[in-house]
Write a structure and sequence with these properties.
Blueprint (H helix, E strand, L loop, with lengths): L1 H19 L4 E6 L2 E4 L37 H4 L10 E4 L3 E6 L10 E7 L14 E7 L1 E3 L6 E2 H7 L3 E5 L7 E11 L10 E12 L66 E2 L2 E2 L19 H13 L4 H19 L1
Parallel strand pairs: 3-11
Antiparallel strand pairs: 1-2, 1-4, 4-9, 5-6, 5-10, 7-8, 10-11, 12-13
Length: 333
């Protein structure tokens, strides 16, 4: 009895430790310089140091923001976040590396990066006025075996660090980088996803001309019922990364990336690393022939079926299978 009680106690203790041991961004590297991030465990330091990372003293448990807060300002930069008092300097087109204190192996999910122009001093900005654009995302990278291999797994295997590139076209100025992991290990039930947003002040230099007049507040990005938020990752899935589509330098200045409900740049098994899509696109088989303009997939299928009637031997089977494959693609689209 004592033995069983001890085992149960240890199991509960390990579970509680795992639940509380998530992480925060504690180190930022850009342009060969290192900057200290905000660590809630060191919030007692007086006087408080001036840091580029936004202060989140309410996150003493290094916990998450749940779907019940998706329309609350807490989803912007974490619970009770206030602006950082310093900046990370980075040239447009260069990389920013974000080092987390740790990340649990069980916490699979996407990694998202957003950028907003402060239109002034980020150290005093009202976070509810910030309009963010998604500049990179990484979702379900490998779906061959549930729960799959995710952006968060890639981050953890890289020593709990992540690198994002600031778009080359961004104009000089003061910006907030919003870096976020969404843990989906319990998201098979509604309101069980876990968002971990982190915000860092950036002073962008260079010769870019796009000042990011577009964007939306993170309070509009997600809903608890979104297919990328409420999802059972322990079953085979086709994952859709939540939030707006990825913004790029090709987006006209002043064009909004859209709030929740905009079509995601990620469909099916797609994932995007540093803003470059790795989506697999289905290409219709042309049977070695050129596809004529205006010919529909259904018309091409009729052509293939007609050809199969004039071919004997194994080729007949091959042609008929080909027609069925195209029909299956049409039915799935």
């Amino acid at each position: 009895m004592f033995y069983l009680g001890t085992i149960a106690f240890l199991a509960i203790s390990i579970h509680l430790l795992t639940v509380s041991a998530h992480g925060v961004v504690t180190l930022i590297t850009a342009g060969g310089q290192q900057y200290t991030g905000y660590d809630p465990a060191k919030a007692w330091k007086k006087p408080a140091p001036d840091l580029a990372g936004w202060s989140i003293p309410d996150d003493s448990d290094t916990g998450f923001v749940g779907p019940d807060k998706y329309t609350d300002p807490d989803i912007i930069c974490h619970r009770g976040a206030t602006p950082g008092k310093a900046y990370v300097t980075v040239a447009a087109g260069d990389k920013v590396n974000l080092k987390w204190s740790q990340w649990p192996e069980s916490h699979h999910g996407p990694v998202l990066d957003y950028l907003a122009n402060c239109n002034g001093d980020c150290t005093t900005v009202d976070k509810t006025t910030l309009k963010f654009n998604k500049i990179a995302e990484s979702g379900l990278i490998d779906d061959s075996k549930p729960p799959g291999y995710w952006g968060a797994d890639k981050l953890r295997e890289a020593g709990a660090s992540w690198t994002v590139t600031i778009p080359q076209c961004i104009a000089p100025g003061n910006y907030v980088l919003r870096h976020e992991i969404i843990a989906l290990h319990g998201a098979f039930k509604i309101d069980n996803a876990q968002n971990y947003p982190q915000c860092i002040n950036l002073k962008v230099t260079g010769g870019g001309t796009n000042a990011l007049a577009s964007g939306a507040s993170p309070t509009t990005f997600y809903k608890d019922s979104d297919p990328g938020i409420m999802v059972g990752i322990y079953n085979p899935i086709k994952y859709v990364i939540p939030g707006p589509p990825v913004w790029s330098c090709g987006t006209p200045a002043g064009t909004s990336t859209g709030p929740n409900g905009a079509t995601s740049s990620n469909q099916g098994f797609a994932s995007t690393l540093s803003g470059v899509s790795t989506q697999r696109k289905k290409k219709p088989c042309t049977n070695g022939q050129a596809v004529l303009p205006g010919r529909t997939q259904k018309a091409r299928r009729r052509d293939h079926s007609a050809e199969s009637l004039s071919i004997s031997g194994p080729a007949v089977v091959k042609k008929r299978r080909h027609a069925k494959d195209i029909a299956a693609v049409e039915g799935a689209s």
